[in-house]
Amino acid sequence: MSRKKGARDTRWPELNQGDDKTISTDVLGKPPSNDARKTVFPGNFDVIELKSVSSLEVPAAEREKRDASKYVPPKIPLEVKAVGSEIQTKGSQKRPPINHWVEDPWNTYSNLRTLDRGGIVTAACTQKTPVQMVVIKELRSVLRTTELKWTFHQNLVAFLELYQFEGKMLAVMEYTVATLRQVMAVPLPLEEIHISALFEGIRHLSKNGVVHNNLNTSKVLFTPDGCVKIAFLDDYQLSASTHARPLGVIAIEMMQKGIPPGPGNALILRHPDLWSAEAANFLSVASWGSLQDLKNVRHPGSLTGLC
Predict the structure, then answer these.
(1) Does residue 145 or residue 56 have the better pLDDT?
(2) From residue 45, how far is each of 26, 38, 48, 51, 78 by CA, in Å?
(3) What pLDDT digit, counting tens, does each position of 194-221 carry?
(4) Strands lying side by side in the sheet with 220-222
(5) Chosen CATH of 188-295 out of 3.30.70.1350, 3.90.950.20, 1.10.510.10, 3.50.50.60
(6) pTM of the full predicted structure?
(7) CATH architecture of structural domain 99-174
Protein backbone atom coordinates (compact mmCIF):
# COMPACT_ATOMS: atom_id res chain seq x y z
CA MET A 1 0.00 0.00 0.00
CA SER A 2 1.38 3.34 -0.94
CA ARG A 3 0.70 6.65 0.66
CA LYS A 4 1.54 10.24 0.03
CA LYS A 5 4.61 11.67 1.62
CA GLY A 6 3.76 13.78 4.69
CA ALA A 7 0.34 12.09 5.28
CA ARG A 8 -0.59 9.47 7.81
CA ASP A 9 -2.97 6.53 7.56
CA THR A 10 -5.87 6.59 9.96
CA ARG A 11 -8.55 3.91 10.18
CA TRP A 12 -12.11 5.11 10.48
CA PRO A 13 -14.41 2.19 11.15
CA GLU A 14 -17.58 4.13 10.46
CA LEU A 15 -16.17 5.23 7.12
CA ASN A 16 -14.55 1.96 6.18
CA GLN A 17 -17.79 0.04 6.86
CA GLY A 18 -16.00 -3.09 7.96
CA ASP A 19 -13.45 -3.40 5.24
CA ASP A 20 -9.73 -2.92 5.56
CA LYS A 21 -9.58 0.11 3.29
CA THR A 22 -7.78 3.07 4.85
CA ILE A 23 -8.31 6.74 4.24
CA SER A 24 -5.26 9.00 4.25
CA THR A 25 -5.74 12.15 6.35
CA ASP A 26 -3.59 15.07 7.35
CA VAL A 27 -2.45 15.89 10.88
CA LEU A 28 -5.77 17.64 11.62
CA GLY A 29 -7.73 14.56 10.71
CA LYS A 30 -9.04 15.97 7.47
CA PRO A 31 -8.90 14.25 4.11
CA PRO A 32 -5.99 15.41 1.97
CA SER A 33 -6.53 18.19 -0.52
CA ASN A 34 -4.72 19.27 -3.60
CA ASP A 35 -3.55 22.48 -1.87
CA ALA A 36 0.05 22.82 -0.74
CA ARG A 37 0.57 21.85 2.85
CA LYS A 38 0.71 24.78 5.33
CA THR A 39 2.00 24.30 8.86
CA VAL A 40 0.56 26.63 11.51
CA PHE A 41 2.83 27.95 14.26
CA PRO A 42 1.53 29.76 17.35
CA GLY A 43 2.37 33.44 17.71
CA ASN A 44 3.44 35.75 14.93
CA PHE A 45 2.56 34.64 11.41
CA ASP A 46 5.58 36.42 9.91
CA VAL A 47 8.64 34.39 9.05
CA ILE A 48 11.68 35.55 11.02
CA GLU A 49 14.86 35.18 9.02
CA LEU A 50 17.82 34.08 11.11
CA LYS A 51 20.99 36.03 10.42
CA SER A 52 24.59 35.20 11.13
CA VAL A 53 26.91 37.50 13.07
CA SER A 54 28.76 38.43 9.89
CA SER A 55 25.54 39.45 8.16
CA LEU A 56 24.63 41.68 11.10
CA GLU A 57 27.92 43.58 10.96
CA VAL A 58 27.58 47.16 9.68
CA PRO A 59 29.70 47.72 6.56
CA ALA A 60 32.71 49.99 6.96
CA ALA A 61 31.25 52.65 4.67
CA GLU A 62 28.04 52.73 6.68
CA ARG A 63 29.98 52.88 9.96
CA GLU A 64 31.77 55.99 8.72
CA LYS A 65 28.41 57.60 7.99
CA ARG A 66 27.25 56.81 11.52
CA ASP A 67 30.53 57.88 13.16
CA ALA A 68 29.66 60.68 15.59
CA SER A 69 33.10 62.23 15.17
CA LYS A 70 32.36 62.81 11.48
CA TYR A 71 28.95 64.35 12.13
CA VAL A 72 28.85 68.08 11.45
CA PRO A 73 26.02 69.81 13.34
CA PRO A 74 24.15 72.70 11.76
CA LYS A 75 25.62 76.17 11.87
CA ILE A 76 25.11 78.33 14.94
CA PRO A 77 21.97 80.38 14.20
CA LEU A 78 23.42 83.86 14.59
CA GLU A 79 21.19 86.33 12.79
CA VAL A 80 22.47 89.55 11.22
CA LYS A 81 20.93 92.42 9.30
CA ALA A 82 23.44 92.99 6.53
CA VAL A 83 27.14 93.28 5.96
CA GLY A 84 28.55 96.47 7.43
CA SER A 85 25.51 97.14 9.62
CA GLU A 86 25.21 96.71 13.36
CA ILE A 87 24.81 93.07 14.35
CA GLN A 88 21.25 92.28 15.39
CA THR A 89 20.65 89.07 17.32
CA LYS A 90 17.51 87.38 18.55
CA GLY A 91 18.24 88.43 22.08
CA SER A 92 19.08 92.04 21.35
CA GLN A 93 16.28 93.94 23.05
CA LYS A 94 16.25 97.06 25.15
CA ARG A 95 17.36 96.03 28.60
CA PRO A 96 15.58 97.23 31.73
CA PRO A 97 17.62 99.07 34.39
CA ILE A 98 19.70 96.90 36.71
CA ASN A 99 18.17 96.56 40.17
CA HIS A 100 20.46 96.62 43.20
CA TRP A 101 19.19 94.68 46.24
CA VAL A 102 20.66 94.40 49.73
CA GLU A 103 19.37 90.93 50.57
CA ASP A 104 20.00 87.22 50.06
CA PRO A 105 19.53 86.29 46.37
CA TRP A 106 18.64 82.72 47.33
CA ASN A 107 15.33 83.96 48.67
CA THR A 108 14.44 84.73 45.05
CA TYR A 109 16.41 82.12 43.11
CA SER A 110 16.92 78.37 43.47
CA ASN A 111 20.45 76.99 43.24
CA LEU A 112 20.61 74.29 40.55
CA ARG A 113 24.28 73.43 40.01
CA THR A 114 27.70 74.88 39.32
CA LEU A 115 28.86 75.53 35.77
CA ASP A 116 32.20 76.17 34.09
CA ARG A 117 31.75 79.34 32.08
CA GLY A 118 35.35 80.49 31.99
CA GLY A 119 35.22 80.17 35.76
CA ILE A 120 32.89 78.68 38.33
CA VAL A 121 29.40 80.19 38.31
CA THR A 122 26.05 78.94 39.59
CA ALA A 123 23.10 78.02 37.39
CA ALA A 124 19.86 79.08 39.04
CA CYS A 125 16.21 79.71 38.26
CA THR A 126 13.51 81.95 39.66
CA GLN A 127 11.35 80.45 42.39
CA LYS A 128 8.20 82.09 41.05
CA THR A 129 6.60 81.70 37.65
CA PRO A 130 7.37 82.40 34.93
CA VAL A 131 10.54 80.40 35.58
CA GLN A 132 13.67 82.03 34.17
CA MET A 133 17.10 80.45 33.91
CA VAL A 134 19.96 82.70 35.06
CA VAL A 135 23.60 82.53 36.10
CA ILE A 136 24.77 83.92 39.45
CA LYS A 137 28.39 84.91 39.95
CA GLU A 138 30.31 86.53 42.78
CA LEU A 139 31.97 89.69 41.47
CA ARG A 140 35.59 90.48 42.18
CA SER A 141 34.79 94.01 43.28
CA VAL A 142 31.76 95.97 44.40
CA LEU A 143 30.13 97.66 41.42
CA ARG A 144 27.42 100.28 41.32
CA THR A 145 24.63 100.03 38.78
CA THR A 146 25.79 103.32 37.25
CA GLU A 147 29.15 101.70 36.47
CA LEU A 148 27.47 98.97 34.42
CA LYS A 149 25.85 101.14 31.79
CA TRP A 150 28.66 100.29 29.38
CA THR A 151 27.67 96.60 29.59
CA PHE A 152 24.45 97.24 27.63
CA HIS A 153 25.35 95.60 24.32
CA GLN A 154 24.06 92.55 22.45
CA ASN A 155 27.52 90.93 22.46
CA LEU A 156 28.16 91.40 26.19
CA VAL A 157 26.66 89.16 28.87
CA ALA A 158 23.75 91.08 30.38
CA PHE A 159 23.65 91.97 34.07
CA LEU A 160 20.07 91.51 35.29
CA GLU A 161 20.34 92.24 39.02
CA LEU A 162 22.92 92.92 41.71
CA TYR A 163 22.69 91.54 45.25
CA GLN A 164 24.80 92.73 48.16
CA PHE A 165 24.75 90.15 50.95
CA GLU A 166 27.16 89.24 53.78
CA GLY A 167 29.92 91.44 52.39
CA LYS A 168 29.70 89.91 48.90
CA MET A 169 28.49 91.32 45.61
CA LEU A 170 26.55 88.77 43.55
CA ALA A 171 25.50 89.43 39.97
CA VAL A 172 22.51 87.77 38.33
CA MET A 173 23.29 87.46 34.61
CA GLU A 174 21.66 86.03 31.53
CA TYR A 175 21.98 82.28 31.02
CA THR A 176 24.53 80.89 28.57
CA VAL A 177 24.97 77.30 27.41
CA ALA A 178 28.65 76.97 26.43
CA THR A 179 32.00 78.68 26.11
CA LEU A 180 33.78 79.18 22.80
CA ARG A 181 36.45 76.76 24.02
CA GLN A 182 33.80 74.08 24.55
CA VAL A 183 32.23 74.76 21.15
CA MET A 184 35.60 74.40 19.40
CA ALA A 185 35.98 70.92 20.95
CA VAL A 186 33.20 69.58 18.68
CA PRO A 187 33.00 69.70 14.86
CA LEU A 188 30.76 72.75 14.85
CA PRO A 189 31.55 75.18 12.04
CA LEU A 190 32.49 78.66 13.21
CA GLU A 191 32.47 81.43 10.67
CA GLU A 192 33.60 84.99 10.09
CA ILE A 193 30.38 86.31 11.61
CA HIS A 194 31.30 84.88 15.02
CA ILE A 195 34.61 86.77 14.98
CA SER A 196 32.67 89.82 13.83
CA ALA A 197 30.27 89.56 16.79
CA LEU A 198 33.26 89.29 19.11
CA PHE A 199 34.82 92.36 17.47
CA GLU A 200 31.60 94.33 18.03
CA GLY A 201 31.67 93.52 21.74
CA ILE A 202 35.33 94.51 22.09
CA ARG A 203 34.78 97.70 20.10
CA HIS A 204 31.85 98.64 22.35
CA LEU A 205 34.08 98.24 25.40
CA SER A 206 36.77 100.34 23.72
CA LYS A 207 34.31 103.14 22.92
CA ASN A 208 33.50 103.30 26.62
CA GLY A 209 37.18 103.40 27.60
CA VAL A 210 37.13 99.85 28.97
CA VAL A 211 39.49 96.95 28.24
CA HIS A 212 38.92 93.32 29.25
CA ASN A 213 41.92 92.16 31.27
CA ASN A 214 41.84 88.47 30.35
CA LEU A 215 39.85 87.86 27.18
CA ASN A 216 40.21 84.32 25.81
CA THR A 217 38.06 81.54 24.37
CA SER A 218 36.78 80.55 27.83
CA LYS A 219 35.45 84.10 28.38
CA VAL A 220 33.45 84.08 25.14
CA LEU A 221 30.05 82.46 25.70
CA PHE A 222 27.06 81.38 23.61
CA THR A 223 23.40 81.83 24.51
CA PRO A 224 20.83 79.14 23.60
CA ASP A 225 20.03 80.96 20.32
CA GLY A 226 23.70 81.11 19.29
CA CYS A 227 24.50 84.73 20.15
CA VAL A 228 28.14 85.47 20.98
CA LYS A 229 28.69 87.09 24.40
CA ILE A 230 31.78 88.38 26.19
CA ALA A 231 31.67 87.44 29.88
CA PHE A 232 33.52 88.25 33.13
CA LEU A 233 33.03 91.95 32.58
CA ASP A 234 34.02 92.69 36.19
CA ASP A 235 37.62 91.89 35.19
CA TYR A 236 38.34 95.12 33.35
CA GLN A 237 40.42 98.27 33.44
CA LEU A 238 40.04 101.76 32.02
CA SER A 239 42.07 102.46 28.88
CA ALA A 240 42.03 105.00 26.07
CA SER A 241 42.83 102.42 23.35
CA THR A 242 42.34 98.70 22.89
CA HIS A 243 44.91 96.33 21.45
CA ALA A 244 43.64 93.94 18.77
CA ARG A 245 45.84 91.02 19.80
CA PRO A 246 43.26 89.25 22.06
CA LEU A 247 40.85 89.18 19.12
CA GLY A 248 43.62 87.89 16.84
CA VAL A 249 44.52 85.10 19.26
CA ILE A 250 40.90 83.98 19.48
CA ALA A 251 40.53 84.20 15.68
CA ILE A 252 43.59 82.03 15.01
CA GLU A 253 42.38 79.44 17.53
CA MET A 254 39.03 79.33 15.73
CA MET A 255 40.79 78.96 12.36
CA GLN A 256 43.03 76.17 13.71
CA LYS A 257 40.22 74.32 15.54
CA GLY A 258 41.42 75.15 19.03
CA ILE A 259 45.18 75.06 18.47
CA PRO A 260 46.76 78.20 20.03
CA PRO A 261 49.32 80.30 18.14
CA GLY A 262 52.98 79.40 18.33
CA PRO A 263 55.57 81.15 20.51
CA GLY A 264 56.43 84.75 19.79
CA ASN A 265 54.41 87.87 19.23
CA ALA A 266 53.47 87.21 15.61
CA LEU A 267 50.20 85.39 14.92
CA ILE A 268 51.20 82.92 12.21
CA LEU A 269 48.99 80.10 10.90
CA ARG A 270 50.42 76.59 11.00
CA HIS A 271 48.97 75.87 7.55
CA PRO A 272 48.85 79.23 5.75
CA ASP A 273 48.23 77.46 2.43
CA LEU A 274 44.69 76.71 3.62
CA TRP A 275 43.88 80.40 3.99
CA SER A 276 43.90 83.49 1.82
CA ALA A 277 46.49 86.27 1.90
CA GLU A 278 43.86 88.54 3.45
CA ALA A 279 43.48 86.11 6.38
CA ALA A 280 47.23 86.19 7.02
CA ASN A 281 47.20 90.00 6.79
CA PHE A 282 44.32 90.17 9.28
CA LEU A 283 46.31 88.15 11.82
CA SER A 284 49.48 90.14 11.13
CA VAL A 285 47.76 93.45 11.92
CA ALA A 286 46.09 91.92 14.98
CA SER A 287 49.54 90.95 16.26
CA TRP A 288 50.63 94.54 16.79
CA GLY A 289 47.79 96.91 15.91
CA SER A 290 44.78 98.44 17.60
CA LEU A 291 41.11 97.87 16.84
CA GLN A 292 41.17 100.91 14.57
CA ASP A 293 44.12 99.47 12.62
CA LEU A 294 42.23 96.22 12.29
CA LYS A 295 39.19 98.00 10.96
CA ASN A 296 41.15 99.31 7.99
CA VAL A 297 42.19 95.89 6.63
CA ARG A 298 40.30 93.24 4.73
CA HIS A 299 39.44 90.17 6.70
CA PRO A 300 39.23 86.38 6.46
CA GLY A 301 36.09 84.58 5.41
CA SER A 302 33.86 86.22 2.83
CA LEU A 303 36.10 89.34 2.83
CA THR A 304 33.10 91.64 2.86
CA GLY A 305 34.09 93.61 5.90
CA LEU A 306 34.40 91.63 9.11
CA CYS A 307 34.52 94.72 11.31
Answers:
(1) 145
(2) 21, 12, 9, 19, 54
(3) 888 998 999 999 888 888 988 999 999 9
(4) 178-179, 220-222, 228-230
(5) 1.10.510.10
(6) 0.64
(7) 2-Layer Sandwich (3.30)
